[in-house]
Specification:
alpha/beta, globular, 25% strand, 9 helices, single chain, 6-stranded mixed beta sheet
Length: 259
């Protein structure tokens, strides 16, 4: 893990020639008169960390659920790897989901399993036929990449909040996803641990050539991890740009995010 006093981490420039996720005019309502998404247009480019911001209840998590087919949407188009997800059968959708990693807010570790068992579970489920030695070496590799090899036999209850986040990220990485979706990766963490997690997100982007959507309210995380920021307002993406560009916006509602 990088020293928290080291400010030399550089974000990776995205390859804007290849779009991995394309969302056009996405609409989603919950009951009459409650239109949460009202024409979302959003893209994720290869090698890019895209930070998604918005007020609580603005629909950030709804976008992610629609994106991976966990929630139906009313109108619009969602393409991942140039495939319209509404045209995929269940097998094709599951194959697409395997290429996408998801770091949940609570890390979503199985409390009854050790760290080793938590990391072995997705390998045994999706990489059937993998030998025990290969499983062990893969687990060791991802734990080393998040700086927690010595936690391999601990139970989740013995881990701090920051350690749980890192183990959750290790489990996300173990299937070598091309896209990672981060849902509030620094929520509930102290400022030092939050910076460590943010630095780890950038490290993973560089080392694994991943592309990511990062939902966060944490301005420090957004500034450190985001190649580009997108802000939801009134059900639409109404502001995009780098952290510095948006922080200097003349729009009062945009300024409110940077106070």
């Amino acid at each position: 893990m990088e020293n928290t006093q080291d400010h030399t981490i550089q974000k990776t420039s995205a390859n804007t020639n290849q779009t991995l996720i394309s969302i056009k005019h996405l609409c989603k309502s919950f009951g009459e008169g409650n239109k949460v998404l009202n024409g979302i247009d959003l893209t994720l480019n290869k090698g890019e960390n895209l930070v998604l911001m918005g007020k609580s209840g603005s629909g950030k998590s709804v976008i992610i659920k629609c994106l991976v087919g966990l929630m139906p949407y009313d109108e619009g188009e969602v393409k991942i790897f140039d495939k319209d997800i509404t045209n995929l059968n269940e097998k094709e959708l599951n194959e697409t989901r395997i290429r996408i990693g998801f770091l949940f807010q609570g890390s979503a570790l199985y409390d009854s399993m050790s760290v080793r068992e938590n990391l072995a579970f997705p390998l045994k489920r999706h990489k059937r036929g993998m030998s025990k030695d290969t499983i062990d070496s893969t687990i060791n590799g991802v734990l080393d990449s998040v700086g927690l090899l010595d936690a391999i036999d601990k139970m989740p209850s013995a881990l701090s909040g920051g350690m749980r986040k890192r183990i959750g990220l290790a489990r996300t990485l173990i299937l070598e996803p091309e896209i990672i979706l981060y849902d509030e990766p620094t929520t509930g963490l102290d400022s030092i641990t939050s910076r460590e997690i943010s630095e780890l997100i950038v490290k993973i982007q560089k080392q694994n050539n991943t592309s990511s959507i990062i939902i966060t309210h944490d301005l420090a995380c957004a500034k450190l991890t985001g190649d580009r920021l997108a802000i939801i307002n009134d059900g639409q993406i109404q502001a995009t740009g780098t952290y510095e560009e948006l922080a200097e916006s003349k729009e009062d509602w945009v300024k409110d995010f940077f106070i």
